[in-house]
Design goal:
Helices cover about 20% and strands about 30% of the residues. The chain is α+β, with helices and mostly antiparallel strands and about 120 residues long. It has a five-stranded mixed beta sheet with strand order 4-1-3-2-5, covered by helices on one side.
Length: about 120
């Protein structure tokens, strides 16, 4: 048997607005594209694990990359023989990755990058 389900996972910090409308749109679109998994939306960005047909995944990624701040969204991709998720969820959260510290705003500021030691 060949792997026929495309699985993607990623997160990206970016300031997002209009989350209630975006949630409704993504949920409806993902269901119509027969995708399953979870998308977390917050004012600080997006976190997702979604699976389905490759063409449907491409539609989702095109839609997400059209959102200001998510143009460079680069998911990790894997293939599976079966759909790993039971349903499609799109949820609104305070944080996409729980730090538990209100002052931490990764969409606004990240630590400086350093080069590896030679």
């Amino acid at each position: 048997m060949s792997a026929s389900v495309t699985n993607i996972s990623c997160y990206q910090f970016a300031p997002l607005t209009g989350l209630k409308a975006l949630r409704a749109e993504l949920l409806e679109s993902c269901k119509s594209w027969e995708l399953k998994g979870t998308i977390l939306l917050s004012p600080e960005g997006i976190n997702l694990f979604v699976a389905g047909a490759a063409a449907s995944i491409d539609l989702l990624l095109a839609r997400l990359r059209a959102i200001p701040g998510l143009q460079a969204l680069t998911p990790k991709v894997s293939l599976s023989e079966t759909q790993p998720f039971n349903r499609m969820l799109v949820r609104l959260k305070k944080e996409i990755i729980a730090f538990g510290v209100e002052a931490v705003r990764p969409a606004d500021y990240t630590s400086p990058k350093i080069a590896p030691a030679s």
